[in-house]
Specification:
This protein has 302 residues and is an all-alpha fold. It has helices spanning 6-37, 44-60, 62-66, 75-96, 106-127, 155-177, 179-189, 191-196, 201-223, 233-248, 253-273, 281-292, and strands at 145-147, 152-154. The protein has one domain. Strands 1-2 form a two-stranded antiparallel ribbon. The N and C termini lie far apart (40 Å).
Amino acid sequence: MSDIPLQAVLSQVMLGLNNGAFYALLSLGLAVIYGMLEVVNFAHGALYMMGAFGALIGLEYLEAWTGIPGLRLTFWWALLLVPLVVGAFGVLVEALLLRRIARLEPIYGLLLTFGLALILEGVFANGFSAAGEPYNGKPEALEGVVNLGFMFFPRYRLFSMLVAVLSCVAVWWVIERTRLGAQLRAGTENPAVTSAFGINVPRLRSLTYFLGAALAGLAGVVAAPIYSVGPHMGAELIIVVFAVVVIGGMGSILGAVMTGLALGVLEGLVKVVYPPMANTVVFVIMALVLLWRPAGLFGREA
């Protein structure tokens, strides 16, 4: 490690933070859904993919599909509207599918969402290129690089990190510090008593799934200018995100955010020291954490 230039280490730390920000944002949505609904949402990667495709469709296909000249969804509008659309789709999934199996074992929710993910991937693979398409709607204000002293870092990647961190802080504040968050937690821990106080628990469940799905959609929009938009982009990432959630603690919001950022940095450092290990270090840590603390670093023991 002493022979490795400090500049290379710092550069990989920054790139790792960028990846970690995506891990944190995606795992936060998973943690919210599991913590409030106790559903292992395997369709989360597909919702992330839908967010990226929403931005791409709005930019490249909306004018041709509607026949309205000049109708295009710029990046900023996509950042605002696409998460709402993906969240609304999540509400339909919760109301029409997940609510029907709410009293069954959690494995049924996992299998249902896994099947839904395969269906969504197949639909987008048939409708678009399976190899992926570039998103060319990056705003001019976010073009170029920023001199950090030890490296030139893309301005858009700094923006994506800022969006992810601010989103994580906002969700944590809503759930932990507001009346709505208190109602969500109460509806999860004791729905019968919560209903007795006149609170609509099914509506809270729908709102929870909306929030988790919208976070996945937001991550997809932010990722579109960085990665190729393809039907399998979520499947390639969701396994790592599940590992992040398990390490942090299933349902722990703080654990999802902190672990996502930390593992992103760790991946970056491992790429400097021993690159072949970078793609598996997360799963090695997951195995060690499960052996030492099955509830996760920030999770509560049963």
